Amino acid sequence: MAYGKKLTEKEVAKRMTELRNLRTLHANDQTAKISLRAEVKELKAENAQLRQQLQSVTETMLARIEELETMVFGRKPKAGTPAALPKRDTVVRPAASYRRPLPPASAITNEEHYAITTCHRCGHELTDTDTAIRYVEDIVLAALSPDVPHRTITKQTIERGWCSHCGQWSSAKDLRGQVVTIGPVVRSLITYLVVQADQTYSQVVDLLWQLYRFRIHSGEIAHILADRRNSYLPTYEALKESVRAGPSHMDETSCPIQSEQGSGYAHVMAGIDGTPAEHDVVYVLADSRGKGNSEQLVGEHYEQVGITDRYGAYKHLFALHQICWAHLHRDARDLTHLECLSETKLKHVTVFYDQLAAIYACIREIQAEPFDEAKRQAQASELLAQTIALCRQHEFDPKKLHDLKAGILEYQDCLFLCLTMNGIPADNNKAERALRKLVIKRKKSFGVKTMKGARTMEVLLSVCQSLYNRDKDNFLQNLHGLATVSQ
């Protein structure tokens, strides 16, 4: 087409159509562009959220892996050097502590005289002789002294007769059971070895034979323990009432029951120091960790203070509740050992731990002072305000620290009862110590076989541990005497 030539109507219409199409396409493109920009922006936000989510999940999983590795292999020393043991204060022992006391004359069972007239080196005759006295304390073992009496066997002649009035036999002593039975001293020793000395049945069988030449079988041991459980049951119920009468510690740990497919938990309740029940401990062995077992342990009308960790079953169990500060301190400290945290988050976690540890140290310092209710109330309010400020959520909080802060705030009304009430401890260490014996026993014997065995062990553990706490020097005598009285 030549320049300046007028377009025909057909060409103008065609070009107008093309222009309209271009405008429509441009409008559609602009709409699509805006939509795509919005979609890209949304995807970027979603990507950032997913990345943050992935980082949080990865951090949590790495933290769990580290905790499992620590449980299995122990904590690795930093910088490749062996972990230094904490230094203990050096205590100078007096010389007398290395020497045994002189036995009284009434305890001497044998005398030996060693004479000498000539020098044992050159054979020359000795003059100015005198004597020195030495003592040798020992015990009699049946395996090493077969000629020395070490076992008593009592032959019982029991008369019986027929009662024509009742139509039954009547005997001077119960004739049920076997002809040869095991006496009360061996029964007390077996109870001590299994429950307090943490021996397995096979170890008890071997020990009784090696030391006393006394044969016994595992089935007899189980029967003896079940019989002792029945004898100690009234004492067990009395221990429950004693512990329930005042403030108490509570805790739980796994204790497998083999007949229940390995599930099982041990629950413990112990009286706090400074109360009539400070030596008393009560155990309950159950097939679960459920709240009902804790409720059974405290009874229906427990109106005292409970000191526990933050396990949910304890939350509404007590009239007044004190949360264990040792658990909070330990949880915060463990966060500072997580290698999966970035340098920034690790520094943030360490600052939190230092501040929480300072609050815990302040609690212990205040508890060492004389109790002044008004002053304690003011101190508790001040520390609570510090704790709430410390537990505000922060962008650098890893998930475990986020959960720990949330848990502390959830129980903020249960943090400082140890200050506002006289004699209430700030930690639950006493319950943990009570469970330690059962944990050691669990590792050696893998728990108990049946629920019947669990019922037996909870009674024996409670009675034995309480008697041991009261007077460990005379524990076996008291344990034996208790069984003799209950017969």
**Helix coverage percent:** 40-55%
Distance between the termini: 130 Å
Q: Could you tell me the strand content as a percent range?
A: 5-15%
Rg is 38 Å
Major sheet description: 5 strands, mixed
User: Helix count, per DSSP?
Assistant: 13
Silhouette = elongated
Q: Which residues form runs of ≥5 with pLDDT under 50?
A: 79-85
Task: Explain how this protein is built.
By secondary structure, this protein is an alpha/beta fold. The chain has a domain at 246-455. Helix content is 50%, strand content 7%. The chain contains 13 helices and seven strands. The chain has helices at 9-73, 184-196, 201-212, 218-244, 291-298, 325-335, 343-367, 373-390, 399-410, 417-420, 429-445, 451-470, 475-486; strands spanning 160-163, 168-171, 248-254, 265-271, 281-286, 305-308, 320-323. Strands 5-4-3-6-7 form a five-stranded mixed beta sheet, sandwiched between helices. Strand 1 (160-163) and strand 2 (168-171) form a beta hairpin. Helix 2 crosses helix 12 (451-470), helix 6 packs antiparallel against helix 9 (399-410) and helix 7 (343-367) runs antiparallel to helix 8 (373-390). 21% of the residues are buried.
